[in-house]
């Protein structure tokens, strides 16, 4: 029945009329309030119209009257199970029990904890995991029924309609305690009264206003607690005893009326939205070649073109979907996979599924309000796998996901992180394959000169952005999927294409935003390509012919550090963009890499000396910044500059820094694992504190929120205000550990690290080094410390020698018997450093040349460190060769090559 206001607004409202705006929708539920109406379609869309003075239409409109049905956009994608209308408020419940309310709220009838009206649907957080299956609305109150048969009420309570033995209003849902254990199966709200039915007792209970006899008995005007009504239905017998046990009871409450309907069978007119059921798939497949196919096509299209219908399908069995939250999707991913495997074998059926999905994609919800909204983003990729023509659809899904608001994206990331590893890996592989396909197409167009290296459409590589997001989720959850699963091989081909051009603005520059698709060698190539670009005279000249700007860097061995600091103090910002050319005064030879390696190696080892170096040496063998250091004379700024220069010029600098330093350089927070690497004993103790389950053990430790500052007086430092008076307990131990880690790795070394960081950025003016992971950056700067000496032998090339010559055989026999430390000393003598650069691990080698000396036994080994050449005379026997080799190594050690 339409309202008087509606009649005034429309001349035809006094007569029954078809709501033409909904004639194309299959309406499965309707609900009417005092002056407004709602309709739910089988496709999962909710429409409202009528009075809107309190926002009861949920369409965020300020208009007081909206005569035509409007889609409630806020609930788009929510698989609604039931809708209910009150006087001027509405409540809806989803298939997984999430409850939403909107409209008038002056008595708290929305259950949101306040009395402000809401013009759009809001999620009732207090009913999360309540397993709501039914809702009912009175004029200004609401009742909610759970799957377990419990009843909650909230809103106006002035007539006792909430059943809490009071007339107080309730702003949040409150359990009706008098019905505890009764297992209610039905609820119904009148204007100011409530009915409930308990099938085990075959009894209808009522509470609230009885001014017009709506409670079925002569009672006081307001009944404050549930009492059975006096009716023929209430026989006092159980269902098993009752002669009418086959009857079905339905209860209905009007404004001031109550109706109890006894039926012979349950033919409720309550219908729900279309969702995929197990029997559907077999029916679709069997009907694909029959006259029923047109009806099947409509059903498939209805479900898979509706976000709400998809979100309501594939629900976890045994009521697990009622636990849906920001961490639990409620989706049975195995069922999604099973469905795909089944229908993908029937192209006719699968084609209709794809048509529905493609129709849906342009209207996917961009502002989800419930965890149930996110199911579609989990389901769709698994329905679009394995098909060449689905890559475009996968890209569209990725575009919608990447446009989500940050808080919504965080929710989806949380759901991804809780996927089973097999499904998460499959999701990664899906987007990795599509990314490969897109970049292969780009490369083909470049090869055919149809596309420039500078024209990669950002919309095409949205799948790479998806991969990067998934990679970050993977990292936070303990790297469940191997990093190489994210690599896209095609990027290496693009790297080589861009290797001789200014990469700024190229496809490579864009791809570097997604580091997960590069392996470490690819990242190194990107970094050094940028460095070469900066060192070239003109960005308009191809790098292969452009002259590099050089920074001539002469030093004396006797005062190496002083000369380095002098150069750095005098250098302009521009000079750090030039490539370093080192020379040692009084020594012949141009720098072809070896002299630079030697410079950084010797400088680092000098600065690492325990007695004279500026760093704090720890029992773990690692270096760390001194606590509370003031960094006098820019010491750490200069060392940071030196490390940055090494990275920019492609040299290793063997400071034994912990992983925490590289995390901090990349803007990542160190954790307890990093502290344990630096201070193993302290780290293990803190972990034991976190693992301890006995309160008494923690109390016996007698710990508070302080840390003993190492040095002189061992003065305790408070980790938080008044920390000395705060004992460490089971409740606050996580905070204590976090503060401890933060103090050691951040707060106590803030000044020296800030100086180091500023110097590092000065020494390395490139930007792409930030694509490295901490472990990768550590390897690139420090070099590899573990060697495969057999691989080194395999990579050696010979001049005037053959591999089977006796001298060569003797040399390797002697070399392989040397202690590991001596082998590293030989490596330093040969190349200027005892570290192997990250980019050369697999192909690091050198030349062995016969100098063709007249008296080889009187000659020593000589090396050209710039070109990694070993001049090896033809010694007469192995003993002489071993003596000469050891003597050479000792000589190089004394000469300062280590």
From TrEMBL:
<dbReference type="GO" id="GO:0006511">
    <property type="term" value="P:ubiquitin-dependent protein catabolic process"/>
</dbReference>
<feature type="compositionally biased region" description="Polar residues">
    <location>
        <begin position="232"/>
        <end position="243"/>
    </location>
</feature>
<feature type="active site" description="Glycyl thioester intermediate">
    <location>
        <position position="866"/>
    </location>
</feature>
<keyword id="KW-0808">Transferase</keyword>
<protein>
    <submittedName>
        <fullName>Putative E3 ubiquitin-protein ligase HERC4</fullName>
    </submittedName>
</protein>
<dbReference type="InterPro" id="IPR035983">
    <property type="entry name" value="Hect_E3_ubiquitin_ligase"/>
</dbReference>
<keyword id="KW-0677">Repeat</keyword>
<dbReference type="InterPro" id="IPR058923">
    <property type="entry name" value="RCC1-like_dom"/>
</dbReference>
<dbReference type="InterPro" id="IPR000408">
    <property type="entry name" value="Reg_chr_condens"/>
</dbReference>
<dbReference type="GO" id="GO:0016567">
    <property type="term" value="P:protein ubiquitination"/>
</dbReference>
<feature type="repeat" description="RCC1">
    <location>
        <begin position="149"/>
        <end position="200"/>
    </location>
</feature>
<keyword id="KW-0833">Ubl conjugation pathway</keyword>
<feature type="repeat" description="RCC1">
    <location>
        <begin position="44"/>
        <end position="96"/>
    </location>
</feature>
<feature type="region of interest" description="Disordered">
    <location>
        <begin position="212"/>
        <end position="243"/>
    </location>
</feature>
<dbReference type="GO" id="GO:0005737">
    <property type="term" value="C:cytoplasm"/>
</dbReference>
<dbReference type="GO" id="GO:0061630">
    <property type="term" value="F:ubiquitin protein ligase activity"/>
</dbReference>
<dbReference type="InterPro" id="IPR051709">
    <property type="entry name" value="Ub-ligase/GTPase-reg"/>
</dbReference>
<feature type="repeat" description="RCC1">
    <location>
        <begin position="202"/>
        <end position="264"/>
    </location>
</feature>
<feature type="domain" description="HECT">
    <location>
        <begin position="572"/>
        <end position="898"/>
    </location>
</feature>
<dbReference type="Pfam" id="PF00632">
    <property type="entry name" value="HECT"/>
</dbReference>
<feature type="repeat" description="RCC1">
    <location>
        <begin position="97"/>
        <end position="148"/>
    </location>
</feature>
<dbReference type="InterPro" id="IPR009091">
    <property type="entry name" value="RCC1/BLIP-II"/>
</dbReference>
<dbReference type="InterPro" id="IPR000569">
    <property type="entry name" value="HECT_dom"/>
</dbReference>
<dbReference type="Pfam" id="PF25390">
    <property type="entry name" value="WD40_RLD"/>
</dbReference>
């Amino acid at each position: 029945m339409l309202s008087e206001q509606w009649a005034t607004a429309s001349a035809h409202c006094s007569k029954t009329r078809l709501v033409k705006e909904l004639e194309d929708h299959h309406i499965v539920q309707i609900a009417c309030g005092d002056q407004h109406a709602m309709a739910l379609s089988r496709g999962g869309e909710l429409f409202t119209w009528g009075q809107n003075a309190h926002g009861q239409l949920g369409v965020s409109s300020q208009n007081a009257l909206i005569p035509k049905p409007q889609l409630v956009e806020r609930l788009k994608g929510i698989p609604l199970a039931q809708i209910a209308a009150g006087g001027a408020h509405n409540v809806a419940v989803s298939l997984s029990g999430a409850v939403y309310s909107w409209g008038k709220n002056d008595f708290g009838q929305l259950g949101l904890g306040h009395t402000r009206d809401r013009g759009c649907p809001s999620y009732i957080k207090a009913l999360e995991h309540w397993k709501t299956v039914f809702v009912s609305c009175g004029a200004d109150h609401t009742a909610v029924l759970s799957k377990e048969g419990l009843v909650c009420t909230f809103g106006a309570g002035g007539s006792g309609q909430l059943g809490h033995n009071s007339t107080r209003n309730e702003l949040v849902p409150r359990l009706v305690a008098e019905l505890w254990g009764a297992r209610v199966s039905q609820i119904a709200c009148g204007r100011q009264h409530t009915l409930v039915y308990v099938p085990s007792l075959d009894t209808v209970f009522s509470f609230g206003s009885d001014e017009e006899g709506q409670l079925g008995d002569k009672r006081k005007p307001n009944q404050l607690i549930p009492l059975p009504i006096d009716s023929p239905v209430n026989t006092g017998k159980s269902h098993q005893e009752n002669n009418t046990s086959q009857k079905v009871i339905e209860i209905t409450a009007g404004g001031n009326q109550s109706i109890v309907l006894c039926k012979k069978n349950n033919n409720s007119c309550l219908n729900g939205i279309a969702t995929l059921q197990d029997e559907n798939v077999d029916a679709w497949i069997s009907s694909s070649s029959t006259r029923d196919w047109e009806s099947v096509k409509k059903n498939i299209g209805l479900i898979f073109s509706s976000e709400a219908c998809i979100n309501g399908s594939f629900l976890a069995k045994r009521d697990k979907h009622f636990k849906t939250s920001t961490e639990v999707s409620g989706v049975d991913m195995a069922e999604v996979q099973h469905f795909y495997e089944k229908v993908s074998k029937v192209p006719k059926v699968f084609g209709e599924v794809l048509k529905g999905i493609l129709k849906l994609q342009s209207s996917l919800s961009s502002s989800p309000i419930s965890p149930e909204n996110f199911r579609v983003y989990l389901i769709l990729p698994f329905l679009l796998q394995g098909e060449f023509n689905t890559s475009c659809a996968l890209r569209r899904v990725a575009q919608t996901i990447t446009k989500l608001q940050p808080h919504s994206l965080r929710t989806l990331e949380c759901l991804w992180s809780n996927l089973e590893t097999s499904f998460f890996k499959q999701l990664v592989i899906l987007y990795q394959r599509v990314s490969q396909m897109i970049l292969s197409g780009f490369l083909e167009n470049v090869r055919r000169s149809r596309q420039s290296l500078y024209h990669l459409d950002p919309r095409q590589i949205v799948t790479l952005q998806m991969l990067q997001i998934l990679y970050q989720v993977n990292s936070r959850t303990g790297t469940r999927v191997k990093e190489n699963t994210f690599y896209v091989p095609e990027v290496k081909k693009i790297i080589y294409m861009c290797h001789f051009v200014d990469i700024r603005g190229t496809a490579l520059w864009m791809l570097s935003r997604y580091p997960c698709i590069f392996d470490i060698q690819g990242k190194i190539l990107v970094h050094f390509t940028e460095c070469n670009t900066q060192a070239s005279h003109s960005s308009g000249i191809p790098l292969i012919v452009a002259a590099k700007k050089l920074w001539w860097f002469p030093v004396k061995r006797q005062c190496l550090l002083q000369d380095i600091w002098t150069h750095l103090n005098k250098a302009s910002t521009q000079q750090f963009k030039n490539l370093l050319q080192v020379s040692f005064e009084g020594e012949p030879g141009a720098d072809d890499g070896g002299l630079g390696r030697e410079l950084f190696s010797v400088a680092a080892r000098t600065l690492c000396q325990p007695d004279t170096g500026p760093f704090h040496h720890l029992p773990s063998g690692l270096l760390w910044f001194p606590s509370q250091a003031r960094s006098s004379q820019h010491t750490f700024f200069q060392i940071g500059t030196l490390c940055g220069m090494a990275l920019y010029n492609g040299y290793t600098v063997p400071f034994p820094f912990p992983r925490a330093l590289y995390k901090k350089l990349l803007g990542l927070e160190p954790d307890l694992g990093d502290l344990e690497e630096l201070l193993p004993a302290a780290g293990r103790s803190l972990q034991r504190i976190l693992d301890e389950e006995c309160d008494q053990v923690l109390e016996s430790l007698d710990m508070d929120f302080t840390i003993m500052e190492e040095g002189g007086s061992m003065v305790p430092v408070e980790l938080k205000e008044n920390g000395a008076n705060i004992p460490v307990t089971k409740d606050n131990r996580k905070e204590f550990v976090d503060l401890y880690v933060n103090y050691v790795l951040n707060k106590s070394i803030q000044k020296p690290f800030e100086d180091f960081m500023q110097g590092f950025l000065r020494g390395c003016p490139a930007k792409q080094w930030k694509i490295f992971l901490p472990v990768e950056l550590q390897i690139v700067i420090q070099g590899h410390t573990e060697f495969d000496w057999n691989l080194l032998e395999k990579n050696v090339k010979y001049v005037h020698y053959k591999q089977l010559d006796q001298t060569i055989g003797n040399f390797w026999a002697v070399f392989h018997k040397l202690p590991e430390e001596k082998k590293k000393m030989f490596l330093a003598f040969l190349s200027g450093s005892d570290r192997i650069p990250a980019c050369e691990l697999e192909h690091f080698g050198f030349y062995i040349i016969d100098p063709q000396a007249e008296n080889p036994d009187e000659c020593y080994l000589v090396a050209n460190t710039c070109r990694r050449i070993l001049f090896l005379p033809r010694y007469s026997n192995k003993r002489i060769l071993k003596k000469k080799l050891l003597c050479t190594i000792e000589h190089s050690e004394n000469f300062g090559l280590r």
